[in-house]
Amino acid sequence: MPIIDFRLRPPARGFLGTKIYANAANRDRYTRRLGFDPAPSVQAQSMDMLVAEMQAAGVTRGVVVGRTTATLGSVPNEDVAAIVADHPGLFVGVGSADTTDRHRAVAMIEECRRLGLAMVNLEPGVMDPPLRADDRRLYPIYAHCEDTAMPLVIMAGGGAGPDITYTAPECLDRMLADFPKLTVICSHGGWPWVQEMVSVAFRRPNLFLCPDMYLIDLPGMDDYLRAANSFLAEQLLFGTAYPFCPLEPYVERFMRLPLKAEARERILWRNADALLGLGLAAA
Amino acid sequence: MPIIDFRLRPPARGFLGTKIYANAANRDRYTRRLGFDPAPSVQAQSMDMLVAEMQAAGVTRGVVVGRTTATLGSVPNEDVAAIVADHPGLFVGVGSADTTDRHRAVAMIEECRRLGLAMVNLEPGVMDPPLRADDRRLYPIYAHCEDTAMPLVIMAGGGAGPDITYTAPECLDRMLADFPKLTVICSHGGWPWVQEMVSVAFRRPNLFLCPDMYLIDLPGMDDYLRAANSFLAEQLLFGTAYPFCPLEPYVERFMRLPLKAEARERILWRNADALLGLGLAAA
Amino acid sequence: MPIIDFRLRPPARGFLGTKIYANAANRDRYTRRLGFDPAPSVQAQSMDMLVAEMQAAGVTRGVVVGRTTATLGSVPNEDVAAIVADHPGLFVGVGSADTTDRHRAVAMIEECRRLGLAMVNLEPGVMDPPLRADDRRLYPIYAHCEDTAMPLVIMAGGGAGPDITYTAPECLDRMLADFPKLTVICSHGGWPWVQEMVSVAFRRPNLFLCPDMYLIDLPGMDDYLRAANSFLAEQLLFGTAYPFCPLEPYVERFMRLPLKAEARERILWRNADALLGLGLAAA
Predict the structure, then answer these.
(1) For the CA atoms of C47, C51, C53, C56, what is the dihedral angle to 10 degrees?
(2) ipTM surpassing 0.85, yes or no?
(3) What is the distance between the alpha carbons of residues B238 and B208, in angstroms, rounded to a whole number?
(4) pTM for the complete prediction?
(5) Does the pLDDT of residue A283 top 90, yes or no?
(6) Could you tell me how many helices (H) and strands (E) chain C has, helices first?
(7) pLDDT tens readout for residues B228-256
(8) With an 8 Å Cβ cutoff, are A231 and B34 in contact?
(9) Chain B closest-CA separation from residue C148 CA (Å)
C-alpha cells in the first residue's frame, strides 16, 4: 500500500535556513512534547538518511510543502522544484506565495505553475501583518487560485498566528463558502478546534484536513477518528509534519489507530492520490 | 416505553414544498453521510408509510416542527395543525414565526396558540437577513414568548447560518441569561460546539438540547453522552430530524448508546413529556 | 504520596460570608449536578470536620484561594493569612486583588506579599464591570505581577463571567503571550473550551490548568486526560473546588482516572510543589 505524506519538509536547500531547521532546540522540544524522539535524518540534516527513513516507514511519496513567512522563514519555489527533480518519483512539490501583496502572490502562484508544482501553500497567520484565512486582503489571491484551478494548502491550525483566533473555524468556513470551487487543504487540520473544524468539513466538500503532528494521542483525536470512520474519510489526509515527527514511529502509531480499513486507505493515500492526480489508484 | 421524536417533518402538505423534500438529492446526501440509507417513506413521500415506520420503530409521538425561512422553505402554521388533526394522538405540532418582523412574528405566535400548537420554532440563521440567536432584533419576540409562556424551539446547530459563528455558544448563552423564564429547545443541539454548548446547558436550566441527526457516531458524541449520563439527562431530547434520518435504524443505533437506563428514559420521552404536558408519566 | 488541593475555600472567617457558603442551596445544587453529595463539613461549616476530611482523603495541603468579586463575595487577605496561621503546615494562602482599580490592585498584591501569601487570585469576570482576561485594563496589574514575580491565579473557566465568551481561549492565550514571564494558574481549567485551552497550554509553558470541579465525568474529560498523559502532565494541577466537591469522594474518583503513574504524581503534588516552592520533592 502506498503512503503519501502530505506535509514533509526535507533537510535540503532553502529549508535548512527556515526555523524548523535553524532552531533545532525549539523543534526538538515540539517533537518530544508530541511523544517522539527526533529523527536521525533531522539531526544530521541528511537527505540520504531521510530517503532511507521514508523507505523504512513505507512512505512512498512526500509532499514537499514550501513556505513564505515572516516568522518561520521562507523557501524559494525553485528550491522546492529542485528537490523534487533531485529525487525522481519520491516527492511532489507544493510552492508558496507571499500573502502580503496580491500582485506578488499571483506572480509566485504562476511561478509555481511554471515549475510544475502541484499546489500553493499560504501561511497568512505567520506573515507580517498576520492575517486570518478570511481576511479580505487574501480574497484576490483566492480568486486567482479558484479561477485558475490552483489548489491551496493553508496552515490553519497549531500555532498558525499570534493567538488562537487565527485558527478559529469561522475563518476557513467563510472563505470556503465564498470560493466553493477552490480546493483547500488545511495543514494541522484546524487543531485544536477539532469538533468545530470537522463540522466545517462536513459542510464544505472542498475542504481537506491534514491534522499531521496534532493527530496522534492528542486532545481531539477521538473526534478526528470518529469523523474519519464516517463522513470525513474522504476529506482527511495523512501527514507527519516532518521534521517535527519521525516517519517510522509516526506511521507505526498511525497504524494502531482504530480506523476502518477503507478509511485508513483513503487517508493514507487514496485522497491524496486523487488531489494530486498521481494516478496510483488507476495503476 | 414511549418514544417522542422531537424533530420530525412528515411528507405532507406544506412540508413537501420545503427544501428537505424538494431537493431530494441534497437531503439524501446528508442522510448517507450520517451513515443511513434514506427511509422508504421519504422516497415515496407517503404518510401511510411514515406511520408504519413510526410503529415499527416504536416512535409513539412525533413533534412536527414547522418552519418559516428564507433559504429552506416555509410551512404554514395551519398545515402543521392540520397534520396533527389528521392523525389523532400521533403528532404534536410546533408552529413557526417570521423572525424578520416583530409584529408579524407576534401575530404568528398568537396564531400558533389559537391553533393549539405547543411551541414556536424560530430559525433566524436561515432567514434574510440571517440573525444570530442573541441578535437584539429577536429580543422583542423572545420577550413576547417569555411573557406569554410560549416555549421556543430554535435551530442553533448544524448548518444554521451562513457560517459557523451563527451556532456559536455565546448566542444561546446570552439570550438564555436575558430571558431566564423562557423555555428553549435547541434543535441540532448546538453541534458542533458540543463541549461548549453542554456547558451552556449546565448554566442555564431553561435550555434543552436535541442533537438529533448530529448525535450518533459523530464528533462530539462522547461529550454528549458523558453529559447525558450526568447533569444533562434532564435537558436532552431525542430526535431523528426525519426525513434526514430513518426512524427504525436511528432508534436501533440510539438504543446501543452507552446510556444509563434512567438517562435513556428521560431522553426518549420523560423530558419531552414534561415539556409538552402530555401527561404520559402520570398515565 | 502528598496531595495538594489547589482550590479549597474553607468554612472559616470571611469565606462564610461569600456566596459559596451564604447560598447553600445554590452550592449544593452544583455539588449534586457534579455527581457528589455535599460534604458534612460544608453543611456544618466546621473547620474541625474539614481537617478530618482532609486527613481521611489524604489531602496533605490545601491552597486557600481568596477572592475579591462583585457577585460572589470577597475575603480579606488578612483572613486568608489568618486561616493559614491557624493551622500550621496544612494550608497555603493565595490572596486576591480588586481588578477594577489598578492602584488598589497593586496595593492588595503588595499586601499579599507582606502577609506571606504565595500568589494572587483575580476573578475579573465576576467583577463590576466584568472583564475578560485579555482586557487592557488588567494589563497594568499583570505587568506589576510579572515585574515582581508574583504568580497569578485567575478564574477563567466554568461560570466565570456573564457569558461563555469570558472564558474563551483567546483571552488567556493573548495575555500569556504578552506576559511570557508571568506564571498563571487557571482555575476551572478553561472548561468548557477544553480542546482549545489545552492547546493554549501547549503553546504557553507559563500556563497551568486546574480543571478541579469540571474534570471528572464531565464533557471534555477525555481531552484533559489525553493531554495529561502526554504533554500537559507538567501543567495540570489537582483541585477539588471545595466546598463544591467533597474531598474523599473526589479523590477516590480522581484515583480511578486512567492516568499514567508519573502524570498522576505530577498532577497530585509535584507541579504544585514546584509552583509553591514547598520543597516536598526535596524532602
Answers:
(1) -170
(2) yes
(3) 11
(4) 0.97
(5) no
(6) 13, 7
(7) 999 999 999 999 999 999 999 999 999 99
(8) yes
(9) 36
